[in-house]
Write a structure and sequence with these properties.
This protein has five helices and two strands, in the order αββαααα. The protein is mainly alpha-helical. It is elongated and about 55 Å long.
Length: about 140
């Protein structure tokens, strides 16, 4: 695994994987922000369903904060794997929390929390898969 910044044509699977997944999630968060731009907190905060998931400004902002850094972490192969691993863990943990609460941390409003939990768990699994595949490729490449 190379430690220097590589041109995009030489990026690893993990570098491409986190950029693609983050871009999709950022587009979804942007649509959510447009659909319900309010920054209200808690159980009664207004939300709009965007592709089946509850969104408002707070949920969109959390997506921007989580997925925006992917473009920086994609600059180095090792960083991409670490980012994918961290994001996978964060999404799975919040997905489990969302499965059991319509207002996780008293901040988010997830009236349709099963869909939100599925989004978090699925996206977390995809990021975990990116990290696992890259680690497998790196292991194969090691003599």
């Amino acid at each position: 695994m190379e430690a220097t910044t590589a041109p995009r044509m030489q990026w690893t699977f993990a570098q491409w994987g986190i950029v693609v997944l983050a871009a999709l999630q950022l587009a979804w968060a942007t649509a959510g922000l447009i659909a319900e731009p309010s920054f209200h907190f808690g159980e009664g905060a207004p939300t709009k369903l965007v592709l089946g998931v509850d969104f408002n400004g707070v949920h969109a902002l959390s997506g921007f904060l989580l997925f925006g850094p992917a473009f920086f972490f994609a600059l180095k192969p090792r960083w991409a794997v670490l980012y994918a691993t961290f994001v996978a863990a964060a999404l799975v943990l919040t997905g489990i929390w969302a499965a059991f609460s319509t207002s996780p941390a008293g901040i988010f409003a997830f009236p349709d929390n099963p869909a939100d939990a599925i989004l978090h768990l699925t996206t977390g699994a995809l990021f975990a898969a990116v990290a696992a595949i890259q680690l497998g490729l790196d292991h194969q490449a090691t003599p």
